[in-house]
Every structure is written in structure tokens, then in C-alpha cells.
Amino acid sequence: MKENKTPKELILETLKEKSSAKQDVFYQTIAVFKMLKEVLADFATEYSKEVQAIDKRLIIEYTDKGEFQAELRVAGDVLIFHMHTNVFDFDRSHQIWKTSYVNDNNTRSLCGMISIYNFLSDSFKYNRLNDLGYLIGRLFVNRELHYFVEGKRQLGFLYNDFVNNLLDKKALKSVVECSILYSLAFDLYSPPYDQVKTVSVAEILETNSTYQIKTGKRLGFKFQADFDDII
User: Fold this and answer.
1) Which has the closest alpha carbon to 157: 63, 82, 225, 56?
2) Rounded Cα gap, residues 155 and 175, in angstroms
3) Which of 9, 112, 157, 223 is at 20 to 30 A from 182, Cα to Cα?
């Protein structure tokens, strides 16, 4: 009868099989994020002159915010792309576990994550630190470059074939374009009157510097998966 493995053997086996796989995913995600930055920079270059020809007040601008963050300003919107430094797995009830691709090799479920947030440009321009941004999508990619996207509207159903979708510049450009289209259609709504009918003296006194009165596209409204339609 085969002897049971010792704790040392189990630790070394886990490090070899799972921890090494996580390192692979991390460095693959870094490579993907660098490629995403190139896509964002190319987008800004491609669209900037054409948009300026339409209206000189409209600005398309890409800013590299460091190793794990990038910013794309599109007129009145800012899209923030943030790479998480950790590697994620999924609950066994998740749809990816229903595929033979993952069940044949469990480490294929390990993914890096890049989150996409939508903010108002004025929130940064006027230093409105209390303003809200919204998570509109999360891109997950494994070490073999298979990917899927969780997100609002098109982002949630156009990119969900984890088994067959392979991430490259063309796919990243498509995700970026879809994110921009969603953000541009996702308008700023006036919050319900009763939720903003009072304001403190401190908030008013601060409006000339940091503008303490909170603003967000759906402030005071429900924002969840059940309400994805934009009217």
C-alpha cells in the first residue's frame, strides 16, 4: 500500500502545482496589462485629432498611472483600468467549472483581474474627492490567455466564452471600445430631490476648494445587475 505523503511532501507538491501556477498567471497578467496600455495609447492617438475636428472642447487623452493603473479620458468621462496584484480562483458553482477545459486542469481556473471603472472627468478636474465611480467591468485572464469579462450590458455577454476566447490586442481593443460606449451612454442623472435637499455649512464652505457635495452618475439610484438598461 502506498504510504501517505508527509506534510513536507504535501507542501512542496502544492507549491509546485498551485503556487507556481499563480506566479505564471501574475506575470501573464502584467504582460496583458502592458498590452492594454498600448491599446489605450493607440486609441487616444487615433481618435484625438478626429474628435478635435468635431469639437475642440472634446478631449481624448491617455495617461499612464503606474505599473498597475491606466487612465483614459473620453470627453466628460474617465475610464480607470486597474490591475489587481493578486490571483483569483472561482467558486465551484461558477460557470467555468462546467467546462472540460477547466476540469481537465484545475489550475486553468486561476486568473488575474483587471477592473474597469467609470468616473466623471470633472471629479478629477475639480478635485471632488467625494464623487463616485462605478465598476463597469472586470476582465479575468489565465496563464494560457483564455479570458472572460464580467460587466454591465454588452460587457457581460459579449466576452463570456472562457474556453474559446484568447486574449490579444484585437480582443483588448474590443473590450475598451465596448467600455467606452457603455460609459458614454451611461448619463449623469439628477439625484432624487429629497436626498439632496439639505446641505451642511461645512459642505458649502468647502465647495470652492474640494467640493464636498457628492456627485455620481446614479447617485441616489439603485445600480446593480438587475438594472443594466440605459434609458
Assistant:
1) 225
2) 7
3) 112
